[in-house]
Amino acid sequence: MKVSVPATSANLGPGFDSLGLAIAMKNQVIIKPSKFHSVSLKGEGANNPVLKDNNMFISIFNDFYHNLAVRKRHYRFEFYNEIPLSRGLGSSSAVIVSAIASAYAIEGIKLEKDKLLNLALAYENHPDNITPAVMGGFNVATVQDNEVRFINKAIPNILRAVVVVPNRPISTQLSRKALPYKYSKEDTIFNISHSSLLTAAFMSEDWKMLRSASLDKVHQKYRMKQMPELFDVQKTSLRSGSLMSTLSGSGSTLFSICFAEDARKIEKALKSKFPHFKVFISDFDNSGVRVEI
Ligand SMILES: Nc1ncnc2c1ncn2[C@@H]1O[C@H](COP(=O)(O)OP(=O)(O)O)[C@@H](O)[C@H]1O
Ligand SMILES: N[C@@H](CCOP(=O)(O)O)C(=O)O
Fold first, then answer.
1. Does any ligand 2 atom lie closer than 6 A to the CB of residue 237?
2. Counting runs of H as helices and runs of E as strands, what totals does the chain give?
3. The complex's ipTM?
4. Record's PROSITE patterns (predicted)?
5. Dihedral, CA atoms, 191, 130, 116, 200, nearest 10 degrees?
6. Mutate which of 11, 143, 165 to test ligand 2's pocket (most atoms within 8 Å of Cβ)?
7. Ligand 1 center to residue 40 CA distance, Å?
8. Which top CATH class is 159-282?
9. pLDDT of residue 51 exceeding 90
10. Which fold has domain 2-154?
């Protein structure tokens, strides 16, 4: 059995804890029946001892498997990870979503995507990463009465992501602590209006509107101060032709959207100015979690 989940970019500037989309890079797990429990890791995190000894996937999988399985078995878990850890590309959401989907699928129990999303909410209580991880595409989401309410839209193939991944991680938990406790009325109104405009731009495919609509006063400047080079990455990307350029999730990745024909030029400008960062072009993902039995 194989389960794959895409990377995500949350917030998209002003849509803090609400907007998010899925990128075509993924974490994949292959699960096979085995005489003993065993784990193998390839790709991102392969040399991280925590992922071998205290793996978040295994502990969430067990939370569900122990309740669902009529007869418990041992499995071999083979992880192929493309999503870097703690870089704001939703690695934790991918793990949560894939672990829950795997526990149901291995027992042959059908799990609707809406239910999976709400089960994942117990592990990550902001919906801007888990929603695109499950559904793919662009998503506007909120939580009401412990349920995710969302609207989803596919991202057309005329667009590409240009992704700049710094060599240093930022933990989401710590990055949330860097934010102010209170916001002024002006900053609040600024973000509500920009987030609304950005959502309308995605829904109506008005791509020229992304640049002004993606401005934010709530989280980026506070977080990017921890890695001031990110301000320069953002400027370089916008000057080279990106439609928008925002901190991805809580950082440290800087994420840009552009027309497909501009992607190479933007990638080249970023690579030559920031040779110590990983820069690449990616498609978007409109499918979300995939389970192959
Ligand atoms: N492939 C993985 N396998 C197991 N656990 C993972 C994996 N990727 C991420 N994690 C867990 O998620 C944590 C990172 O979460 P977080 O700081 O929210 O970063 P991100 O922005 O990438 O979601 C890691 O410290 C680890 O506990
Ligand atoms: N809205 C959250 C998103 C965190 O995304 P991650 O990919 O960094 O985990 C936040 O901004 O804290």
1. no
2. 11, 11
3. 0.98
4. GHMP_KINASES_ATP (PS00627)
5. 40
6. 11
7. 17
8. alpha beta
9. no
10. Ribosomal Protein S5; domain 2 (3.30.230)
Q: Are 12 and 159 in contact (CB under 8 A)?
A: no
Q: How far is the CA of 92 from the centre of ligand 1 (A)?
A: 4
Average of per-residue pLDDT across 111-133: 97
Indicate whether residue 88 lines ligand 1 (CB < 6 A). Answer: yes
Where are any strands of DSSP class E within the chain? 2-10, 19-34, 38-43, 74-81, 138-144, 147-153, 159-165, 244-247, 254-259, 278-282, 290-292
Q: How many residues does the chain have?
A: 293
213-217-222-228 Cα dihedral, nearest 10 degrees: 50
Ligand that lies nearest to the alpha carbon of residue 84, given by its number in the listed order: 1
Amino acid at residue number 88? G
Q: Atom 14 of ligand 1 has which residue's CA nearest to it?
A: 86
Q: Where are the domains of the chain?
A: 2-154, 159-282
pLDDT tens-digit map of 227-239:
999 999 999 999 9
pLDDT, tens digit, 9 for 90 and up, residues 126-156: 999 999 999 999 999 999 999 999 999 999 9
